[in-house]
Amino acid sequence: MKLYAPEYYKDFKCIANKCRHSCCIGWEIDIDRKTADKYSKLCGGYGEEIKKSIDFDDVPHFVLADNDFCPHLNSQKLCKIILEMGEDCLCDICREHPRFYHSANNIKEVGIGLSCEEACRLILSSDGYDRFVEVGYTEDDFSDNKFDTLKLRAEIYSLLSSSSLSLEEKLKEIMQRYNVSPDTKTDFEWTELLVSLEYLEDGHKELLSAYSSHFSIDETAEKQLERLFAYFVFRHCTPTIDAEDFRTALGFSLFCTKLIASISTAHPEIGITEIARIVSEELEYSEENTDIIKLEFLFI
């Protein structure tokens, strides 16, 4: 079946050693079973180095070096598996990151995640978030869920792209229309919740505690936040299975957008692209943190 993606997707390319926040550093890299079996049978040359670098117990994974680097990063921070064996030798997660896939209304879609700095740059700088293009094919089955999230997404995008309203007015209209809002909790309550979460980096806890229901941003940041909110809706609302699921995903999307705006207001020196990447890394890429925030919208 055909695979669709936001228009900016076709421009994505890993920037490898130019990346300041490499996904090959600090992350334990799990290896899918099919590739692990392939690695276990490698003989000679660099294949032996690959086998020696893997812990095959439980979930197979590369054992990080003492500096938390993937054992296959060279001194130039380039992948030795690609250099020695070719891209076809990569495991699924190394080949696919930061891509994600979902299905809705009998179609399959692919996107790129904000925790990747190059993906983040593209998402924040690209117009046409409501334009989707065919990017290939997939053998995966689509969901038979009948809940029409594509219609709901199109409604939100239509309102979001209106030139007659400010971003704050657009978000307020969306909150009223779909009866979900982060503003039903106080700033203090949200801050307490954010401080209670688990973080990859301790310093991010203080940064994310800058949440405020009111923010002040310039015209450029407003457009970037519009694109960010569209991304969150695309990623989190599209694969939902019913009205309640959609509502909590929309609440999460609104909250993350307002959180990024709040931090940008309090810390303009960081830059909104880096703020978005950090929020994504700490909240969106933690299933536990995502679920905790979504639960806050379940009974509102």
What does this molecule look like?
47% of the residues lie in helices and 9% in strands. It is of the alpha+beta class and 300 residues long. It folds into two domains: 24-95, no CATH class; 149-295, no CATH class. The strands form two sheets. It has a four-stranded mixed beta sheet, with no helix packed on it. Strands 2-3 form a two-stranded antiparallel sheet. Strand 4 and strand 5 (107-112) form a beta hairpin. Helix 5 packs across helix 12, helix 10 (219-237) packs antiparallel against helix 11 and helix 11 (243-266) crosses helix 13 (287-295). The longest helix is centred in the last third of the chain and has 24 residues, at 243-266. It is globular and about 65 Å long. It starts with a strand and ends in a 5-residue tail after the last helix.
What percent of the residues sit in helical stretches (DSSP H or I)? 40-55%
- Number of E-type strands: 6
- Cα distance spanning the termini: 38 Å
Radius of gyration over alpha carbons? Answer: 20 Å
Strand order of the largest sheet: 4-5-1-6
Low-pLDDT regions = none
What fraction of residues sit in β-strands?
Answer: 5-15%
Q: If helices are DSSP runs of H or I spanning 4 or more residues, what is the number of helices?
A: 13
Mind summarizing the main beta sheet? 4 strands, mixed
Q: In total, how many domains does the architecture comprise?
A: 2
Helix and strand content put the structural class at alpha+beta
Overall body shape: globular
| Helix-strand sequence | EHHEEHHEEHEHHHHHHHH
| Whole-number mean pLDDT | 93
